[in-house]
Amino acid sequence: MWAGPAWAQEANREVEEGRALFDEKCVVCHTNGGGDHIGPDLAGVVDRRSREWLARFITVPDQVLAEGDPLATELLKKYNGMPMPNLGLSSDDAEDIIQYLAAPPAAAGAAAPPAAREVQPAPEMLFAQSMILYIFLGITLVIVVVFGIVGLSTYEQTDVDVSKAFQLRRVLFTIGLILVASVAIATLPQAPYAKEGTKADRIIYVAARQYEFVFSEEPIVTVEDISRSRRITSLELFGGELVEFRVTSLDVTHGFGIYGPERQLLAQTQAMPGYVNRLLVRMERTGPFLVLCLEYCAGGHHLMEAHFTVDDEEPVASHSTQAPLIAR
Length: 328
Fold this sequence. Notes:
This protein is about 40% helix and about 20% strand. By secondary structure, it is an alpha/beta fold. The chain has two domains: about 5-110, Cytochrome Bc1 Complex, Chain D, domain 2, CATH 1.10.760.10; about 200-325, Cupredoxins -  blue copper proteins (Immunoglobulin-like), CATH 2.60.40. The chain is elongated. The model is unreliable at about 315-328 (pLDDT under 50).
């Protein structure tokens, strides 16, 4: 009597889990009924391919291509030579995705409507930044006009006292040197570089790959490490924390840019294969933060983003008297 409902509940669970995995891992390159994208439309793929082939290609696409599988090779050529990356999915994950793709359109499309995106206020520094840009453009225009006037007024050759010209040049050079040295002396001690012995309140490991950022409590060196490490699916930090992001890449070079609640760029570094960059950020603002890739990394670059939140909390005491980078 209960076998039917229990089986139906299990099937629905697999479809929902498959939908969640598809939205997280696959939607950057594929659709389910929306037409070809970076990769093929996967609607009806279960009818065109065997489940065994699909499961293996989902879990180890790099091995399937390396073995010269004719179908995988044909797909690679058809879609501009862009291989599917190894996403670190297990056989159970692959089965859930296949169940989702095999579900009737009504069941597969019965996703909850997306939540309305919160309207973000205009950045606080937008006016100041605009004024700086306008001032820069105004100065540039003045320089162009001055050079144009000087150029038009010097068509006729005139005798020039070279000794006086060089004396003026030495004076201007000395003044410029003093100004540059003064600015350097005043600002270099405040540069956002980590001091020796600075210790962060929390360390977050970041592995970038096409097209996502993976947060973890443990270092991630290979794609296989993703399934073995303690992955952070919902990163929450506290106001006042000094956080060290240790950033690397598992495929190509990416950018790791942190944007605050007002969508101001607060800090950034590169994510490079085989190298770890350390980015120290003091979380002085609370609210939703956004991470974007700042370096073009292929067709899905514009979809590569991550989110984390900073909650209101008493500032955490740092082990350094000055934070290397203050997020304001």
